[in-house]
Write a sequence for this structure.
């Protein structure tokens, strides 16, 4: 194995992400890490582990803002149409880091109209999921409800909608089609609404100008490019500035394909009973070899292992512990069965602790988020 | 001239309007006039004179509502991008009639985002025009500011925008293209916004359920059909019901073509100095013959005359006076010069009286309409 690059923070797809970065002009996040150290800012788990692999203007917008003592905000959105899983947690962990470590104001949009258009769920169910599933899990994870502005997209103030309406006059169908391929009225409205989500915290009506960062999966960059263009086009009128963005790798489902609410056997939900979650984990695709003998001889491939993904992104926050697992796997010292037992224990511990907080978090969620009247 | 149909309320284009009605299934307004008489309701000038030539569901929605003592509302919208002219007055007169004679609540939308997208005027100028030109002229014409809800489309409450967002998930691109041909993001948003304008007064947040009528030019029917479909599709969710609509003939410009702010020589604005307005009127296209001798022999053609249009729609509210002018023109007794002198006098009288009210109306407009903050 001499000469082979060993990187406990890497995954097999890193080359694809590098290509993605170069094609779209996203800069490597590693570039800004020295500046963060200069400013005395702690790195988040996802920054340290190269899960956040790219950025646009993170230095110019966010680090410069912090250096100058200006207000910063982080914003994300969720479509409340399924259950909250470890893919969602990846984003929420970033919100919590920005809130606790960098003093950022947090905005969370609940895309209830999009859920209504796309998933065709009853509105009452969408609203219930938004509050009791999404917001409650975020609070239980540690997002401070007093410092977070959770809102349904259909229940925001007029200046927010004014952005949507004015944006509509400054974008062409060709630009929309470049992002969406075949467009529909709901895709157009959803895209303009997302741009308003990202940019409206800069308006006086929402606390006044602040520098904004949006943490997204690599596949979301087209939205960011549209939003940057719209900020430029409404700069003079509404004082909008381009947001920064960071790009994270996507955590895979337990079969190695997409993690999604619609694939519940391969996706661990934060409300799964621990036994059920562990049952899913025990069946997960690993980087193991065909036989135990072969694995002892050649070692496993953590980069190909979906359980290792869970460790890297979520379950093993201590870097030393993770490095040990990585090495023991690569060296063939630890086989998948033993490793999964460690995972099962960590998962049970995490879920029990999280779920113990969930009931209170639900009550808080219900008391702070205003549901749309229909 | 024996056998020829003589109709002081007719115009040359009536045949086109009849065809329009038949193609789209709009019913003749004359059908509902006996029911209005039964209910003891006075007819408006434009109803009496067949300017309102068609309707959809006016009997089922509005007359039935009045008979049952239920709340009714009338709604219209203006794009504040030019000066207020006699074409606009045609709609406002209908609002005033509904407000005074039928006790309807009046809603007036100011389409400021559309003006921004289409006319590319500075936002401040759009807002100024909306308040000081459109709303002020409407109040000076007699619309009761205490009983009228004037609003900018970019400055309305969340439930109104919620309709726009939910509508976007229940309409296809094909439907949009059937209305607009080539669509753009701003046309899509504007169309959904118009539907929200028409339907939002039914929501609890805007005073609770009421029956709604929309007075439009014949060319606006596609919007109404879309709005009716959207009402059906959100009936169960938001309690929306189809609106009624009435259809009026369009008053022509002074050259016989379209009346429009962008054609100021052929359009009389309600803020034109009387001398300037009279100068326009004196140059207007009439139904006169090539020579005075010929006109005395054959008579004029009021149906072809744009000055007669002004009398019919606006300047001569007394039916007897209008019938006399019609007959004197048809018989060749009165030639165009004499007739235009009558018109000039009426126009001066109207504009002087209107403009005397305008300054106070502007102050009222500024005090009641909330301008968008950007």
């Amino acid at each position: 194995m001499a000469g082979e690059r060993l990187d406990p923070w890497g995954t097999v797809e890193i080359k694809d992400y590098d290509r993605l970065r170069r094609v779209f002009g996203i800069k490597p996040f590693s570039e800004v890490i020295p500046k963060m150290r200069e400013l005395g800012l702690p790195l988040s788990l996802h920054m340290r582990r190269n899960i956040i692999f790219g950025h646009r203007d993170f230095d110019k917008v966010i680090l410069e803002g912090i250096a100058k003592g200006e207000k910063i905000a982080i914003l994300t959105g969720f479509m409340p149409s399924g259950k909250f899983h470890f893919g969602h947690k990846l984003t929420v962990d970033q919100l919590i880091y920005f809130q606790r470590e960098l003093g950022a104001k947090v905005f969370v949009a609940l895309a209830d109209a999009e859920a209504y258009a796309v998933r065709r769920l009853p509105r009452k169910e969408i609203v219930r999921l938004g509050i009791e599933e999404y917001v409650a899990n975020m609070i239980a994870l540690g997002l401070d409800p007093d410092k977070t502005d959770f809102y349904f997209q259909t229940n925001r103030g007029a200046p927010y909608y004014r952005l949507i309406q004015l944006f509509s006059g400054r974008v062409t169908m060709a630009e929309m089609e470049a992002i969406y391929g075949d467009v529909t009225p709901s895709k157009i409205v959803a895209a303009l609404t997302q741009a308003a989500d990202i940019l409206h915290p800069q308006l006086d009506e929402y606390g006044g100008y602040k520098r904004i960062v949006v943490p997204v999966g690599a596949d979301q960059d087209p939205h960011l490019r549209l939003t940057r263009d719209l900020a430029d086009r409404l700069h003079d009128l509404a004082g909008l500035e381009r947001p920064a963005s960071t790009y994270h790798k996507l955590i895979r489902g337990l079969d190695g394909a997409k993690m999604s609410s619609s694939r519940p056997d391969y996706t661990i939900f934060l409300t799964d009973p621990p036994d059920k979650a562990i049952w899913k984990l025990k069946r997960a695709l690993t980087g193991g070899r065909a036989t135990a003998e072969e694995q002892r001889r050649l070692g496993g491939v953590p980069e190909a292992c979906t359980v290792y993904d869970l460790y890297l992104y979520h379950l093993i926050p201590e870097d030393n512990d993770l490095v040990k697992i990585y090495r023991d796997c690569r060296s063939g010292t630890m086989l998948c069965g033993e490793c999964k037992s460690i995972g099962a224990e960590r998962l049970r511990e995490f879920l029990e602790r999280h779920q113990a907080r969930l009931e209170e978090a639900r009550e808080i969620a219900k008391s702070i988020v205003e549901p749309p009247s229909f």
The beta strands of chain B are 27-28, 52-56, 72-78, 105-110, 148-152, 211-217, 244-248.
